[in-house]
Amino acid sequence: MDQLTERNLIFALDIGTRSVIGIVGYQDGDLFRVCCTEREEYKNRAVVDGQIEDIEETAKITGLVKERLEQKLGFPLKTVYIAAAGRVLKTMESSHEVPVPEGEAITGEFVAKLELGAIQKAYGRLETEGDGQGDAFFCVGHAVRGYRLDGYPISTLLGHRGKTAEVSQIVTFLPREVMESLYATMALIGLTVSGLTLEPIAAMNAIIPPDLRKLNLALCDIGAGTSDIALCDRGSVSAYTMATVAGDEITEEVMRACLVDFQTAEQIKMQLSADINAPVTFDNILGFSQTIPGEEIYRMICPAIEKLASVICEEIAQTNGKAPAAVFLVGGGSRTPTLQTLVAQALGLDEKHVAVGGNVYIRRMITAEENLLSPEYATPLGIAITAASQRAYDSFVVTVNDRKLHLFNLWDTSVLGVLQMSGYRYRQLMGKAGASISYTLNGERRVAWGKPARPAEVMLRGAPAALTDTVQPGDVLTFTPAECGEDAALTLSDLADVFSRFTVTLEGQPVSVGRFATVNGVPQEKDYAIKSGDEIVLTRIATVGQLCAAVGVSLDGQAALVNGIPRGEEYALAAGDAVSLVPADEYPPAPAANPPVSRPVREPEAPSVGAPPIESTHDSTASQPRALIIELNGRPLRLPPREGGLPYQFFDLLPYADIDPQNPQGQIVQMLNGQPASYIKELQDGDCAEIFWNNSI
Question: I need a labelling partner for 658 at 20 to 30 A (CA). Which of 4, 10, 282, 539 fits?
């Protein structure tokens, strides 16, 4: 002991529900040698179900354990390793799949981002299930269950090429107040936390070494308030969970059966654990001394023991998906009489496949007095073993953006892990590209991409760092979070060099021409903001030929007069032009395009908001007032004669159709006598018209 100093010693504390256990030792080759231990029970309920409620009382009891150990050692203890209780542990299975860059081999950076994506998904679920309280929890680590490459299981992704990569993992969370209460308690007695792990992990490290984890095994640490459960399979820890019943339920049943206080009930329970057949003598709360056969007390508390076994086994089977190959029971509650047999029966296992203590493997890792190699010491010994394996990162304090942090060095010491444990979220680490807009233009699928994210910047020791770089104790990290890219923004005017509408007359009727657009069948102006899913049709009516084609008029055998002058199909229209059609043989051949002479420049006229692109046309032969009888969407419709004998065009039917152009439900379909119809197609008696939404396009 004279050669030992705090520098090469490990001080581990197990802050339990009933007591505090302290262990001091050191690593000697493959063995951890225990130098001294101390244990002290609480005088009141300072810790409930493994979680500190009274910080000052907990610090008082923990301080007594520390002082006694210091007296044995002859020097003060300044650093400590601790564990958080499993009751507050939240675990979630989470998977994440991303495309692999084409032709590139998978790197460690890629795998780190893949795993971080699964962590972020777990955070998202936690926030959703916790009514937005995700930030109240802290991710303390994750365990990879497996990878897939292009849908096939694979042990490692590094160096491989493929199309998609997927990770499945267990993500573990603790409430922030749990960590804060632990650190506050240690600070009150002058201790700095060198490392923190989880109780089920610590117990697993003591009882089930890594080479046994290829088997499907369950470990149940039965304490006073909770029963922490850890499962392993195929070489790694596969799940953590807990049951809400433990040793206190049995103690309370003894209190009711024997009419004794809590401490006396604990003593009776311990006597039953040692020898169920021996008589038990005690004083009840009335002061009467009693001696009752142990078998009789057991019969009275047996239902509570059966319930304990049942709840534990249900949790194991539900989390594991089946009964494991074997079960290890540790913790003070594991000594409960007949619990081993009841657990074996509930899981359908041979009783030899349920072990209490598991000290066979503890002996391979720890040298200590025989009484320490017992179920009650599995967790504190596990904390010490875990600390010894990570001693290279002792006093793990780093500075992140000028803030000093004591981190969970027993987990992930990469840049990614440190930033994650510092509270940064996925969107801050990776960023997100702006939302894109997917639309169709004249039947062609197009995408307007959002702007890319500005990546995060990480500096480690003054130099740029990758997410996979390792952080050492005392390092300084400077982190500038990523910024999400701007969403795509697109208007109709962005799709056309010229976006204008003006008016000409055809046979004396005004017609909107130029370049214009419909969105989902509804006319829209140039400042319309395009949305994902929009079906856009750009229409250009700029020449005489395009005008005639739009209204369904053939120029075969006819000549077009523009402002009384014969013009060809390629003649470019201007605002105010008057177009009329006459028999071709009445005029000489027209020039194909505009003559090279100057003509007055007329500004395009602004169309009325909401007006259809092509408003009307007029057949000069229709001059007599008449009523029309047509069929619209399978129903007869009578249109009364118009004043002045004006004809009806197809767009006049829109008010009678059961559609709302201001509330698009798809693409408007306009059919007349089985053929697509333009807005200005003139209607005739007996016509069959259809106007409806087609939302399958």
Answer: 539
Which of 395, 361, 379, 370 lies closest to 31 in space, CA to CA?
Answer: 361
The secondary structure element, H or E, covering residue 144 is strand 137-149
Q: Which residues of 197-208 are buried (b: 16+ CB within 10 A; e: fewer)?
A: bbbbbbbbbbbb
Strand partners, 448: 437
* 439 and 534, same domain (yes or no): no
Report CA Rg, the chain.
Answer: 41
For residue 120, being part of any structural domain is answered with no
Contact call for residues 428 and 119 (beta carbons, < 8 A): no
Q: What was the pLDDT predicted at 9?
A: 87
Q: Is residue 204 one of the residues assigned to a domain?
A: yes
Find the DSSP H helices in 25-90.
Answer: 55-73
Q: Classify 302 in phi/psi space as left (phi over 0), alpha (psi -120 to 50) or beta.
A: alpha
Tokens of 184: 């506050």
Helix or strand holding residue 561 (H, E): strand 558-562
d(CA 96, CA 177) in angstroms, rounded, equals 29
- Return phi, psi of residue 294, to 5°: -60, -35
Using alpha carbons, list the distances in angstroms from residue 7 to 76, 392, 395, 398. Answer: 11, 12, 11, 20
Instruction: Give the Cα separation of 449 and 185 in Å (integer).
Output: 53
Burial class (CB in 10 A: 0-12, 13-18, 19+), 403: exposed
- For residues 69 and 38, the answer to whether their CB atoms sit within 8 Å is yes
> Tokens standing for 270?
């311990």
Q: Are residues 434 and 531 in the same domain?
A: no
Q: At 489, phi and psi to the nearest 5?
A: -135, 130
Which 8-state DSSP code applies to residue 526? T
385 and 402 belong to one structural domain: no
Six token digits for residue 418: 């440190």
Give domain status of residue 107, yes or no: no
Q: At what angle do helices 294-320 and 262-274 cross, to 10 degrees?
A: 90
Contacts of 620 (CB under 8 A, 6+ apart): 507, 508
| Whole-number pLDDT of residue 131 | 54
Residues 464 and 495 in one domain: no
Q: For residue 245, tell me if it sits in a domain.
A: yes
**Separation between Cα atoms, residue 28 and residue 32, nearest integer Å:** 6
Rounded to a whole number of angstroms, the distance between the first and last alpha carbons of the chain is 84
> Are 239 and 365 part of one and the same domain?
yes
User: 10-residue block means of pLDDT along the chain (697 residues)?
Assistant: 64 88 88 90 78 88 94 89 75 88 86 79 74 62 81 90 90 77 87 79 83 89 85 80 84 92 89 88 91 92 92 91 92 88 93 81 73 80 83 61 62 70 70 84 86 85 82 83 88 75 86 84 85 88 87 83 86 88 70 40 31 37 58 78 73 73 71 81 84 70
Give the helix/strand (H/E) hosting 546: helix 544-551
Q: 372: closest CA among 85, 32, 9, 617? A: 32
The CA-based angle 463-465-471, given to 5 degrees, is 100
In this predicted structure, what is the pLDDT of residue 203?
Answer: 84
3-state secondary structure of 590: coil
Whether pTM exceeds 0.85: no
Identify whether the C-beta of residue 260 lies closer than 8 Å to the C-beta of residue 268.
yes
Is 560 in contact with 579 (CB distance < 8 Å)?
A: yes
> Contact 201/232 with Cβ under 8 angstroms?
no
How would DSSP label each residue in 500-524?
-EEEEEETTEEEEEEEEEEETTEEE
Separation CA 90–CA 246 (nearest Å)? 18
Sign of CA dihedral 368, 369, 375, 381: negative
Residue found by looking up tokens 């051949």 in the block = 589
